[in-house]
Design a protein that fits this description.
CATH architecture: Orthogonal Bundle
CATH topology: Ribonucleotide Reductase, subunit A
Strand content: under 5%
Shape: globular
Number of domains: 1
Number of strands: 0
Number of helices: 11
Radius of gyration: 19 Å
Structural class: mainly alpha
CATH superfamily: Ribonucleotide Reductase, subunit A
């Protein structure tokens, strides 16, 4: 599938203006979530039988801690994507100039996204990152060495999630002045370009690495994100349901929360639909493998 030249040209025309909105956001000191309202679509266990057994305070804590986890995931993903482009630079000479420029601009935007989510987290009550783990760094580094741009479609899936997550914020009637709403609105404006562009970047580069290296890199990333999900949801459960017994937290609430976040969360289900649609349009190499791992 040929890259979308018009999309790339439109995207690159934004290069001179995207930076200012993030510079202004990074100067804000009013980003702490102070609302005492939780939003069911964004709250772990929503829609399950266990949700009715939780207290309003537990739901609010679960909601806020889940937002902190999503922020940490965004930071981890944005940084990893920038590293992927850096690892690939020695091999980028053959790329179409439009794809190369688009890749550089995506990397710059991801750096600003990272700074924005770190700035947001620094003003919350919870941990500034859920991702301080040597195993996570080791596995992501190993995958990038094997095939750095295999990560582009993993990144595309989570960027699709950013877009559908924003849809859920709007459908939940969240206050447009809420810091989480503002951050995600700004983020979505960039990611709307990134999802199709990352398919084009993948298609332009994947032949250099072959099936085995692509499969190995993607399999490592797939395993990594299972560890990330379990670790993150464990922290959400321990914070939100701290008054529950150890047995109930780890053997009832934790498995249910992992199932909710990986299969039941509405934004993630809609992101899978979006990825399947782009799979049909872009026809990436090794489609069967990609559908199994990332849709």
């Amino acid at each position: 599938m040929e890259p979308n030249v018009r999309l790339m040209e439109t995207y690159l025309a934004r290069e001179s203006v995207f930076k200012q909105k993030w510079v202004e956001f990074l100067q804000r000191r009013d980003l702490r979530i102070t609302s005492e309202r939780y939003y069911p679509l964004l709250t772990p266990l929503e829609g399950s039988s266990l949700f009715a057994d939780t207290t309003p305070q537990e739901r609010l804590l679960a909601y806020k801690t889940n937002i902190e986890f999503i922020s940490s995931m965004q930071i981890f993903l944005e940084k990893t994507l920038v590293q992927a482009f850096y690892f690939y630079r020695p091999k980028e000479e053959h790329l179409d100039p439009l794809i190369k420029r688009s890749m550089r601009l995506v990397a710059r935007e991801e750096l600003y996204h990272t700074l924005a989510y770190e700035h947001f987290l620094s003003q919350q009550d919870g941990p500034t990152s859920f991702m301080q783990n040597r195993l996570f760094r080791f596995l992501s580094g190993l995958s990038l060495k094997i095939n750095p741009l295999a990560f582009t479609l993993i990144g595309a899936k989570f960027e699709a999630f950013s877009m559908t997550h924003m849809e859920d914020l709007k459908s939940s009637n969240m206050d447009p002045q809420d810091p989480w709403f503002v951050l995600n609105q700004m983020h979505m404006e960039d990611e709307a370009y990134h999802v199709p562009l990352q398919f084009d970047i993948y298609n332009a580069s994947v032949k250099q690495y072959g099936f085995l290296r692509t499969f190995a890199a993607m399999a490592i990333m797939f395993v990594l994100f299972q560890f990330v999900l379990i670790s993150g949801m464990r922290k959400v459960v321990n914070v939100a349901y701290a008054n529950r017994s150890f047995w109930r937290r780890h053997f009832i609430l934790l498995p249910a929360t992992i199932r909710w976040s990986s299969r039941k969360m509405q934004a993630l289900r809609k992101a899978r639909v979006m990825m399947k649609r782009y799979m049909k349009i872009k026809k990436p190499r090794y489609q069967r493998l990609l559908r199994f791992l990332y849709t």
